[in-house]
Amino acid sequence: MGLAIRTGEEGSRMNIRPTVDINKAAEMWADDASIGDIAAHFGVSRGKISGIMGRDRERFPQKTKGKMAKNRAAGNGNGVSKVAFGAAPGKSLPTRSNGGHAGHKLFNVHKARIEAARREAAEFQAGTSAYLQIAPDDALRLETGKELMDLAAHDCRWPVSNISPFRFCAHKQFQGSSYCAHHMLRSLPKEAREG
Fold first, then answer.
1. Could you tell me where the DSSP H helices lie in the chain?
2. CB-CB contact of 171 with 151 (8 Å)
3. Residue 62 burial (CB < 10 Å; 0-12/13-18/19+)?
4. Which of the residues 92, 100, 143, 167 could staple to 161 if both were Cys, CB 3.0 to 4.6 A apart?
5. Could you tell me if 161 and 134 are in contact, meaning their C-beta atoms sit under 8 angstroms apart?
6. Residue 76 CB-density burial (10 A; 0-12 exposed, 13-18 middle, 19+ buried)
7. DSSP assigned state of 128
């Protein structure tokens, strides 16, 4: 390793920088040394060696034999390696087939949700929404129902009206549930009620 020693104008400063013997580096390159090997030999970074090689392609031609040439020849004949970037040596990354661009799928889901919300709003405005329907049992409990502020600790919290002032069932809760026995059963899925 050669060192270039430079002194300042007054001789008070001294910079010690490793230099690269280009002839020796070209000789190592011809003997199938890698960029990392050459950089380690001269005590410099791989980037410095790559820069030197890029500026002097006559001394550092593309390799046609040796280990690096074999790696390049392992491709498909066009100089393109079969190994995908990021894959382990001798392995290739799996190809992903999602049936189209993922962004299109997200757009379609978003579009479907917007259309469903518009239909629901139209049904609500027309008065045909399921949310506006009151079950016959709830219509009977509407007279005995209470507003939210009037509910006691153990009153059923099932809403029995859908317009202001909102009213709740207010029957006695069933075994620690928030609802009475009737509304607790209605809150369960159909399979659980029948099973």
1. 22-30, 35-42, 46-55, 67-73, 102-126, 136-141, 181-187, 190-194
2. no
3. exposed
4. 167
5. yes
6. exposed
7. -
